[in-house]
Fold this protein.
Amino acid sequence: MGYAGVRGGQEAIAAAERLVRAARYGGRSAWLELDQITGGLPLAVDRVMGEGGLWAPEITARAIRQSQGDLLEAAQLLRAHRSTMPRLGYSLPVPMDEAGTTRRVSAAYRNPPGGQFLGATADYVPQILDLGDGDGADLAGDPGAAPAAPDPAGTTGAAGAPPGLLAELREAGLLAERPSRADAEPFDITRTPARPGAPRSGRLSAMARAETGSLVHLWYSVIRRPEHVAPEIPVELRRRTLPVRVAHPYTGRPVTVARAEVTEARTVRGAGVPGEDPTRFDVGYGLCFGAVEAKALAMAGLDLLVHRAPEADRLEQKVLTHLDGPEASGFLEHLKLPHYVDFRSALERLRAVHTTAGGAR
């Protein structure tokens, strides 16, 4: 990659930056407070936190405000901020049955053990553009129309979390056992780039930080192929509040220092390719920050598909190296920088070819 460094025109560059700052701070609308972004645009905040790889709602709101709503740029800002922070340690593993549940639905069971919790969702009503003021006046006069906000620890609480739905299938011998691979410690993609052949934890980490639209598009492009005709069914989709625990520096005892909201998906698929055991389901898993259900579901589907055929159409490589939003947008954005030398070199080659061809005639 080669391009000329920007020289000269410093006044023009400074003026261009002032225009951006004027749009950010001096617009006609009132100044956006951070709680307006975290409270009014929670799904945007969740998406940026996932792609930025950092659970920090207020800092993410600052990034969204600074980027003027460009979520890719906000994820880049968050990722860069994260890289400047000292690494104090690693969190401890937490059993998922200790995480509270704020939403739990199943597309496989009508009445699963523990029941279904719809939580906050618009999945079952028509998606129509609301042209009203949206000030919540329709909820103010009817106490029953304004449900209480979910408990931060989870609607069910940790102790009352319903059991997972795969246990019954596993006990009945209906789940395929994946070949065991050395993956005792989670693969840290922030220290070592994940490449084909990386353990499953590396793939899951890469997908958890992937750009959501790219991840969904890759899953959709693969799932539509004829060899994947067997239906993919989400057995369980949950939104959970996960405690973040670290070892106390003096006592060594586990201490809960924060709680992060996550979305978790488990999906199954029957045999669809030659060589598979037609008598068992295969399982895919996805988990990401916030209430980004499309990402968790696509992640679970791709986890399953990569396990089945990692080399088909270089799917594993695409999952590991093609889905990072800040990396892809950074490469694209750099094309706007001066490439005078590259262009002049290409131009001179073309002129030489035309001159030679013209001379041969």
The longest helix spans residues 340-360.
